[in-house]
């Protein structure tokens, strides 16, 4: 037995050593660097027109200096200036709230009222994630078993068809943002948006919300996009929006998406541990994290051969997906005319 163990250890070392040398050599000759986004290594961005490719490349260069360990949304909410008489009516909008935790925790972190918008019956359009998968419209309805179970385990009830506030300063607005957002703003004339959290997922809903809110953005407005590193979704919508109006802005942070917050709020520590174990193992074994080890998948090679070492560490080090990005508006361009 002992002899067997002694023989296996050097063999393992040799195999690991050879794999490491091959990896280093492979990385030196690999030509695909910077063609794949460090979210799913899915779509080859050379399918896009030159201007958008440049935008993506510049974005990643800037974001790599702005990595944060936690949730981008809470990082931003906790940095908003304390409410004062002058800023009391500024709007904090959470667009796409599901069972409501992103809204409640943003209110808690900022000490301000947050308005959460959702159909509560799920996505209003199909969501094509790069060239990876399509998430069908209707997904994320509160009638789904996962939503019901998480609501139960985090103490959320439905009151008049919307999730309960649970003592936080939140107000939920039920319905498609195509119908609710404009009347909501019209009822609050001239009030600026301080925090705009986009988690409606699809390109169409994101662009519509940006256009509807455009006159309420001011210098200093913070925009957080939960799914920014999906190049045909929120990133594309923001790219077109800022181009159209000549907006001036700068990136602030790149961190965890909001979804993982829901697990943090599970009340029973044993259940919480179970959720974490279940979600994390599902993600790496059967979910989007598969590309890290499934060598038959082309994304495996894009990741291990092409991703900068810092990205590899950042993506592997998260108990959730790192694709959420925040930015600050610094000049209104043609929006101010
Ligand atoms: C990913 S979930 C939001 C998750 C939530 N922010 C969290 O952290 O738990 C996306 C939500 O957006 C909602 N949604 C998508 N498009 C919408 C639209 N145009 N109007 C209203 N709600 C929409 C869906 O119903 C869904 O609940």
From TrEMBL:
Keywords: Membrane, Transmembrane, Transmembrane helix. The chain crosses the membrane at residues 6-30. PANTHER family: MACROCIN O-METHYLTRANSFERASE (PTHR40036:SF1). This is Methyltransferase. It comes from Mycolicibacterium parafortuitum (Mycobacterium parafortuitum).
